[in-house]
Amino acid sequence: MNQSLSDQIKSLKLTLLKLNATGEQGFEGLIAAALHEITGVPFRLAGSGLQFGIDGKYAYDADSICFEGKRYDGPIPRTEVITKIADLARNNSYPDLVWVLGATSPVKTQLADDVRADGHKAGISVLILDWSTADLPPLAAALAMGGRRVEAFLKANIGNNNDRRNALLALEAVKADGDFNEHAKRIKAELDAPAIGTAIAQEANARWLTDGFSNRRCARNQFGQPLSPGDSASTKTLTRKTLTDKLQPFLAGPPDGKVAFVLGGEGYGKSWIIAQSWLALDPKPLMIIFSPDEFQETAAQNDIEELLTTKLIKQTGDELTEVNRQRWCRRLLHWQKNPSTGYPRLIVTIDGINQKPNADWGKIIDKTCALLEQMGGRLFVTARTPYFRDRIKRRLTVQAIEIDVPEWISTERDEILRNYGINSAALHTAVAQSLLNPRLLGIAVELINKDNVVALEELSVSRLLFEHIRASELDAPIPQPVDTFVRQLREHAQKILLRVQEKQEDDLNIFEADTSAVADGRFFHPVEGEPGKYQLKDDGLTLALGFSVVDLLRTAKRNGRDLDGRLTILLDPIAALDSTADVVLAALTVAVVDDDQYMPDIAAALVKGFANLQNPDQTKFPVFVGLSKSKPLAFMEAAHDLCLDGAHQQNFDWIKFAVIEASKNTRTWTEIARRLSDLAVQKVLK
After folding, report:
1. Over 109-174, what HEC string results?
2. What whole-number distance in Å separates Cα of residue 197 and Cα of residue 673?
3. pLDDT at residue 50, rounded to an integer
């Protein structure tokens, strides 16, 4: 006569209660046999005496499961279980430990919740395999999963043939039950703690990074810069597949102790290439991103493991608590004990080391790489190419893999512009060249999207560089006030003008290297063969002189000087550089674009000064028009004064037609019409 499943389960429990409570031939040995079969983890049983909450523990450090067996006929005393988990928590040395409570009695819900809560506080996963009265008892399901090892144990340790046969039949009945597969699936999943613990952290890290890479505002908060190549709402860029194909083997392949250096010029998109390469991977590796200011000046000052631990907690979206810190410390230690892996367990990116140029990055990188190599990790570093070549490369003992990130080529630039409905044929040659720089191209597109300029042809290189300075204040990982950088540019310009006045002919724009020049590559670049010197680029010099002119005009205004006469004096040494018109346009750009610093009389003085220049570049007339649309009244005031003076100036037609073009814009016409009305009223009153 066939027994019901319920009767067979009752029979199985009675047989289990006949086992000794402890020892290899007892209930503890049975739990060890079942867990060994399910997980592949062999166990050692604890001896008598203080057991620290463990009856059985993994035999090898690579494993992370231990258990406590409670063979009871009646209720399980609460204190025995609570004290066991407390003892284990005090002596836990593994990051993703699973503590299994195997019991032949039901564990009450309140006790189960408390045990799991205590375990969670200590970073311990708790799996309760008890003899619940509803459904299949979890312990019965686990024993059925124990297969051949449990069968062998029962045959060896159940002396009564009838009891042994009934126990084996009961386990077969459990496996045949419709609920068994779901029980087995959940038990197997909860026992896979090392994989689960790392996988949970990896998934959380993937969400954290993806959120940042996919939203410009979020990226600023998380990384201190708009590192958001996945933000389709604000970015229409190209995936540089040639480069991502180079990086992905380092992101996904076996770690080999080499450091991948992603190199290029300022604004070339070095960080974006790493982000794009990571976003394209599935599954996505665990990766953390450091800014250079998070490291101290020398390698000896940095506790790399502590830095990794803190950053891992933050960039997996967790709270910086002592429990989480201890868990990650244990995980990193476990990785060091078991370094062999077919993929990087952890990828560390130090982004933009040239931003902290005085740090001993050679030694810091060596130290970081050594630790990552011990735990099966990989290190990426981004840097400007000259800085890496002149300051870092010869300081390294690790093998460096150099991955060069170039600017856009013209076809790539044109394709990106087409995505925004912009015809590249409208570009001025100098602007077109500047827009090969990914960062400046992004700035140009953002200006057009905001309607700050009406057409791309109204952009100048000086405007792009000025906007780059302003964007750097917002986007830089560490504060870079506009005023500080502008002051530095002005000082360079004034030194160059002094050299001109002193009749110096050689090395007019060459300077001894300093920190800021090393850090910013849009305005400065090193002198070939002389890493101790740098050069102010021509475009940067034009804007620097423009800043200087505006600053000196403000000084003249404060002191009640004639602005027109003062400008004539200021432009005299600049004429020797054969770039007067470009400098005045740059100064006018600075004067009218920055609303906070706008002074109408200074802008008007610059417009009048431009009217008297010799042979300005006719191709830059659209730039002049664009500036007139920005502040039309300054141009009107200049035109008014020039008309009173006879309107015979060489470039008066520039001002006249610029104002006419500006009036065709609805917004600017409103300002012009209001001013004309005011002038008419004033004339009537006179």
Report:
1. HHHHHHHHHHHHHCCEEEEEECCCCCCCCHHHHHHHHCHHHHHHHHHHHCCCHHHHHHHHHHHHHH
2. 69
3. 37
Percent of the chain topping pLDDT 90: 46
Tracing tokens 């010099």 back to the chain, one arrives at: 541
pLDDT at site 53 = 42
What are residue 530's DSSP bridge partners?
Answer: 527
Those residues whose C-beta lies under 8 Å from the C-beta of residue 472, and which sit 6 or more positions away, are 480, 482, 485, 520
3-state secondary structure of 501: helix
Where along the chain do its domains lie? 5-191, 197-404, 410-459, 482-685
User: 197-404, what's its fold?
Assistant: Rossmann fold (3.40.50)
Give tens-digit pLDDT for 12-43.
999 999 999 888 899 989 998 998 898 877 77
pLDDT, tens only, 54-78: 565 555 454 567 888 888 888 888 9
Residue 282 is encoded by which pair of tokens? 């599935």
> What pLDDT, in 10s, does the model give residues 108-141?
999 999 998 888 777 788 889 999 876 789 999 9
List of long-range contacts for 72-80, beta carbons under 8 Å, 24+ apart? 72/103, 72/104, 72/105, 73/17, 73/104, 73/105, 74/105, 75/105, 75/106, 75/108, 76/103, 76/105, 76/107, 76/111, 78/111
Q: Is 90 exceeded by the pLDDT of residue 83? A: no
- Cα 134 from Cα 146, distance rounded (Å): 21
Helices 621-630, 632-644: inter-axial angle, 10-degree rounding: 110
Q: Provide the edge-to-edge strand list for the sheet that holds 530-536.
A: 510-512, 530-536, 524-527
Please give the structure tokens belonging to residue 619: 């191709």
What per-residue confidence (pLDDT) applies to 526? Answer: 80
Candidates 448, 208, 424; CA nearest to 311 is 208
Give the residue-averaged pLDDT of 307-321.
Answer: 92
* Tens digits of residue pLDDT in 654-665: 999 988 888 887
Task: For residue 495, count CB atoms less than 10 angstroms from its CB and return exposed for 0-12, middle for 13-18, buried for 19 or more.
Answer: middle
Closest CA to 512 of 537, 494, 536: 536
CA distance 650 to 608: 11
Q: CATH number for 5-191: choose from 1.10.10, 3.30.450, 3.30.2010, 3.40.1350.
A: 3.40.1350
Residues 6 or more apart whose CB falls under 8 angstroms from that of 507 comprise none
- pTM score, whole prediction: 0.76
H or E segment and range at residue 465: helix 461-475
At 95, which amino acid appears?
A: P
Mean pLDDT of the residues in the chain: 86
Q: Contact, 263 vs 388, CB < 8 A? A: yes
Q: Is the pLDDT of residue 406 over 80?
A: yes
The two most distant CA atoms of the chain are separated, in Å, by 126
Q: Could you report the per-residue pLDDT of 198-219, keeping only the tens digit for each?
A: 777 888 899 999 999 999 889 9
Contacts for 193-201 with beta carbons within 8 Å, 24 or more apart? 193/64, 193/65, 193/96, 193/97, 193/98, 193/125, 194/63, 194/64, 194/95, 194/96, 196/96, 196/125, 197/95, 197/96, 197/125, 197/331, 198/96, 198/286, 198/331, 198/345, 201/286, 201/312, 201/316
3-state DSSP assignment of residue 436: coil
Residue 195 confidence (pLDDT): 58
What sign does the dihedral 164-166-171-175 (CA atoms) show? Answer: positive
